[in-house]
Automatic annotation (TrEMBL):
Name recorded for this polypeptide: Mitochondrial carrier protein
Keywords: Membrane, Mitochondrion, Mitochondrion inner membrane, Repeat, Transmembrane, Transmembrane helix, Transport
Alphabetical list of InterPro entries matching this protein: MCP_transmembrane (IPR018108)
Pfam families: Mito_carr
Length: 344
């Protein structure tokens, strides 16, 4: 028996000993395209991170939309009041819509970023290969993900805006006598909103969202990659380094674009708010910024920002950790290898 025949026999025996299920799983993962693995890893990481910070996200929305009884309270007092009114379940109201949105959003964001980056590198070599590419690719990926998932974000905001009183009734803290719909879930929100205004209503507030996400997503990737460039080579693969750079990138990006997020939230819940006290409908983002500053004060543009700082660090930490674990399990090659595979 030759050496080649012996090696084939040994490999066949090894397959039998290892067991077929394990071998099928390995071969299935090996045959999966890299971009599909990135979609799965990004979506799972987004879901884990979003659920972990759901209570803070709910309070942030209540503060941003100036919900009566909450806008003058601090973070911990707001959490206590919400617990009293709705119980633990109230912390996660709207989180179903948020997770359903964040899974495709995060998946599309990571995958689109890699694809746009390769596209720019292949077709616009004059731009070089530095952090500017990350800025452009991140911005384009963020816009793509937002347009694909915005109706779910609208549903999440409307559900989170509802506050259930201790008797079980829905309270929007309205001063007028017009009854407002009590949404029972994601599907109910989407159906009701579509019936009222069609597709245009489902994308109410998408303007400030896009204006905000383009610089935010771009800055996030740009700052993250720029910070990594200043890290010594021996620490490049450190998970602590990645978490630190990601958290700082998120903090800077959020601070610069947060006022646009406030305008977006107020536009999303306009139909649930009274027409008095300066809550007139905003025709565009610039008008929204102007009216909020004039009627509610410039501080309202940063309402809930402290909570955003509190939630973004653990959110980024959990997201990066989960993403790394998923990449390891799915056997996603390092970024340099991924580029060559995608290009080929």
């Amino acid at each position: 028996m030759g050496s080649s025949e012996g090696s084939v026999l040994s490999s066949n025996v090894a397959r039998l000993i290892d067991g077929s299920p394990a071998r099928k799983e390995v071969s299935y993962l090996d045959g999966m395209p890299v971009y599909v693995k990135e979609l799965i890893a990004g979506g799972a990481a987004g879901a884990f991170a979003k659920t972990a910070v759901a209570p803070l996200e709910r309070i942030k929305i209540l503060l941003q939309t100036r919900t009566k009884g909450f806008h003058s309270l601090g973070v911990f007092q707001s959490l206590k009041k919400l617990l009293k009114h709705e119980g633990v379940q109230g912390f996660y109201k709207g989180n179903g819509a948020s997770v359903i949105r964040i899974v495709p959003y995060a998946a599309l964001h990571f995958m689109a970023y890699e694809q746009y980056r390769c596209l720019i590198l292949d077709n616009y070599s004059a731009l070089g290969s530095g952090p500017l590419i990350d800025l452009l690719a991140g911005a384009a990926a963020g816009g793509t993900a937002v347009l694909c998932t915005y109706p779910l974000d609208l549903a999440r905001t409307k559900l989170a805006y509802q506050v259930v009183e201790s008797g079980g009734s829905i309270n929007y803290h309205m001063k007028n006598n017009h009854a407002q719909p009590a949404y029972n879930g994601i599907r109910d929100v989407l159906r009701s909103v579509y019936k009222q205004g069609g597709m245009r209503a489902l994308y109410r507030g998408v303007g400030p969202t896009l204006i905000g996400i383009l610089p935010y997503a771009g800055l996030k990737f740009y700052i993250y990659e720029e910070l990594k460039r200043h890290v010594p080579e021996e620490h490049q693969k450190s998970i602590v380094m990645r978490l630190s750079c990601g958290a700082l990138a998120g903090l800077f990006g959020q601070t610069f674009t947060y006022p646009l997020d406030v305008v977006r939230r107020q536009m999303q819940v306009e139909s649930l708010q009274p027409s008095v006290q300066g809550n007139a409908r905003y025709r565009n983002t610039l008008e929204g910024l102007t009216v909020i500053v004039r009627n509610q004060g410039w501080r309202q543009l940063f309402a809930g920002l402290s909570i955003n700082y509190m939630k973004i660090v653990p959110s980024v930490a959990i997201g990066f950790t989960a993403y790394d674990m998923m990449k390891s399990w799915l056997q996603i090659p390092p970024r340099q290898k991924t580029r060559s595979i995608s290009a080929s």
